[in-house]
Every structure is written in structure tokens, then in C-alpha cells.
Amino acid sequence: MGRYDESKKSSGAKGKKFGHAGRVEDPYRPEEGQEASICTSCNALYQNKRWFFDEKLAQRLGGTQKVRQVVCPTCRKIKDQYPEGFLTLSGSFLAERKEEILTLIKNEASRVSSRNVLDRVIKMTEEGKDKLVVETTTEKLAQRLGRAVYRAYKGELDFRWSEMNRFVRVYWSR
Ligand SMILES: [Zn+2]
Description:
Layout (H helix, E strand, L loop, with lengths): L6 H5 L1 H5 L18 E4 L5 E3 L2 E3 L2 H7 L5 E4 L2 H8 L4 E6 L1 H5 L1 H18 L5 E6 L4 E6 L2 H15 L2 E6 L6 E6 L1
Parallel strand pairs: 1-4, 5-9
Antiparallel strand pairs: 1-2, 2-3, 5-7, 6-7, 8-9
The protein binds zinc ion (ZN).
């Protein structure tokens, strides 16, 4: 867990549990005199301990001395295949309507990801005709996607947290 020391983990209840509270080192902080840090992979910006997208600012700062080049925690998780959320969809209804359900998941994921740098789908894997596994960088996104499918199609929705709350598994079936 220490590998991905996001600000949410050093301040939240979870951070306390793992003894991260009070840790002040911030690997993404811009250098003295710089305005922001920028992710060289997804162009996300980091200022005041917060990640966000701002195309105009990224364009203005990109390649200048005013910005520090880093790789954001989300891109690192994707590169290292380090999911914190798993959504498993299964059932004969899924098999019948797979394209439609995939589209719904992709749309919801891109809507969330465009607003929040931390939430991204790592990969989607089809396991046979009637099973699909979606891996996400955050627990929150896996839950959101599961809820979105449930809202649209009903079925069964179940959340299971791992021991130590390191990640969540969300199951939807119909
Ligand atoms: Zn990034």
C-alpha cells in the first residue's frame, strides 16, 4: 500500500489505520518556484495536494521550468496493474446484452475519469461468454460502475471488502 501514497490515504480513516497520518513527505509536490506538477502520461496537474485536469493550464505550463514532470499515482497504478477495485459481471442476461452493458460501463467510466484524475479503469477482461471483469484504480469507481449497471438493469449487486480494506470486489449478476 505504501507504494501509492495518495493524499486521501494519508488523511482518511484508512490512512490512520495504516499509520500514514501525519506523514508530510509528498512525492508529487512541485519544486520551489514552480506552479504545479504535471503527469507526463495523462497530463493531469497537481497543485495544493490535489490532482485535476485543466487543458489550458497544462498547455501553458507544459515543457516550461514552471512545472515539474512526474507520473501521477493513477498512471502508475495502471502501468503496474495495481487495481483497488474489481467489478465482476456475470450471467445469461450479461451474455445477451454484453455490448450494451459494456458501452454503459465505458461511458460511465469516462464521465467519472474526466472529472476525477484518481478514478480510472485499468482493464476489462472477458472471461467466456457470460463473465466480464473490470479492474479499476479506486474502490469508488468499481462501486460506481456496479451501481450504474444495477440502476439500468436491476439484477443482483453485492459488495465485498477484502480483509484490511485494501480493495473492494463488486459482483453484479443477472
Ligand atoms: Zn497520469
